[in-house]
Amino acid sequence: MKAKWWQTAVVYQIYPRSFQDSNGDGIGDLQGIITRLDYLENLGISAIWLSPVYQSPNDDNGYDISDYQNIMTEFGTMEDMDELIKQAEKRNIKIIMDLVVNHTSDEHQWFIESRKGKDNPYRDYYIWRDPVNGRKPNDLRSIFSGSAWEFDEESGQYYLHLFSKKQPDLNWENESVRQEVWDMMNFWLEKGVGGFRMDVIDLIGKIPDQEITGNGPKLHEYLQEMNEKTFGNYDVLTVGETWGATPEIAKLYSNPKRKELSMVFQFEHIGLDQQEGKDKWDTKPLSVNELKKVLSKWQTSLGNEGWNSLFWNNHDLPRIVSRWGNDTTYHKESAKMFAILLHLMKGTPYIYQGEEIGMTNCKITDISEVNDIESINMYKERLAQGYSKEEIIDSINKKGRDNARTPMQWDNSENAGFTTGTPWLRVNPNYKEINVTANLADANSIFYCYKQLIQLRKDNPIIVWGDYVLVEEVPEQVFMYLRKFEGETWAVVANFGDQAVAIQLPEFGQSTRILIANYPRSSVEFSQLELKPYEAFAVKL
Ligand code: NOJ
């Protein structure tokens, strides 16, 4: 089968605000990214997913866009952006833009007009409703706490915002809105970007009056129209942030025959430590068996009719090594274990900045240390509901998005080499030990494990195309699977526990063909295999 470039690629996500500052204002920028492209080339990635770099008042750090065709002043200029695309291309790296079109900023010109009154030509670009019995139209809630409806005194109507009130939702039913989005996408495609990551794209088909938000009836119609009017004729990667996708829904998005997106980015595995029916702040311990079930389901159910992303981290999630691994005694081992387990699966892997050097969560003790609007709104809401401060801070330490957003740790100099100024968000104090320079100097580092995994994927079609089989006859804490392709079989074994564990699988025999491992290992004897804490390896059978 002829692979598409994005099927063999590994994508690296950059959160520009926190990646590299070049002018000392404490905020990462495009020139900063350019200076780090050699580092990314060395790692071996094929594409960068760039979190939003457009003009924005930063109520939600760039996910509230006020101008889609201009660069955020703090990040640089359009010339810098053109240079980034060009410099990346020289290194065979494509730039994937973050497409945030479920909503704009309330400071976008369209909304400024829309707000002027019911007769304004832009009124219908957004979702305005009359009060019902003097109250908000219905009970839709914002993902950032509180009602999703905001009252506008002047016109006596409410507008919908599924995120903050500074992020009004666009009305996708309006053909002019769609045309504006297509024009904007074509502007970026003509610049030579490598594709789009589509922010909460599952929400664009919403029917607010019926309280339907995700997976609305017109969603796929809009995506087919988008494909036809914009990227359909380009060889680009398009990935939808698709909350609530089942494998069946994933096929709707990503079956090549349907001409929608290249792949989905779904969260079923990463929500497994959330209490049933509660929200993200209410956690429970992870069941490794559940994780095996969910990841395996996604490995086996798409066939040739869909494509999935592989990830543990992004800018909205706590760091996996702190969350489900061990960021103290077995920091290196557990970080590599997560990498090996995931990167040998089928799908397109995503690495979130700093993951490749084992960056960890960063604890806070007070709400004044928090920048993220989601955590701040939740704090206020839960305080009013009677939760104690300690409980709320604890949940922010576990699940808050700032955990992933602390500046990239480049070296052991002041502010980790991120900035010469005052960083917009504090640097994790562990930067003296955990940083890029230290990783590059240690042949055994987490960085080199990721680099080796990326190279393995480039060299071995079995990783891209092989069949996946879960091995069930192992203790719960061991995650083991096989990949099979053209007569070859690989076994991937990962111990999720901080205790050693033994497995006996004589039918797999013995092998000295170790492909990658996080402890020194020259052979594997499956009839009597003792795994060390967080041990992981892949072996050719
Ligand atoms: C998902 C993004 O990943 C997140 O950071 C953002 O807050 C929301 N969408 C709203 O755009």
TrEMBL record:
GO terms for biological process: oligosaccharide catabolic process. Pfam families: Alpha-amylase, Malt_amylase_C. It is found in: Cytoplasm. One of its GO terms (molecular function) is alpha-amylase activity. PANTHER family: ALPHA-AMYLASE FAMILY MEMBER, NEUTRAL AND BASIC AMINO ACID TRANSPORT PROTEIN RBAT. One of its GO terms (cellular component) is cytoplasm. InterPro entries: GH, GH13_cat_dom, Glyco_hydro_b, Malt_amylase-like_C, O16G_dom_2. Keywords: Cytoplasm, Glycosidase, Hydrolase. It comes from Perspicuibacillus lycopersici. It comes from the Bacteria. CDD domains: AmyAc_SI_OligoGlu_DGase. This is Alpha-glucosidase. Its main location: cytoplasm. Belongs to the glycosyl hydrolase 13 family. Residues 13-405 form the Glycosyl hydrolase family 13 catalytic domain.
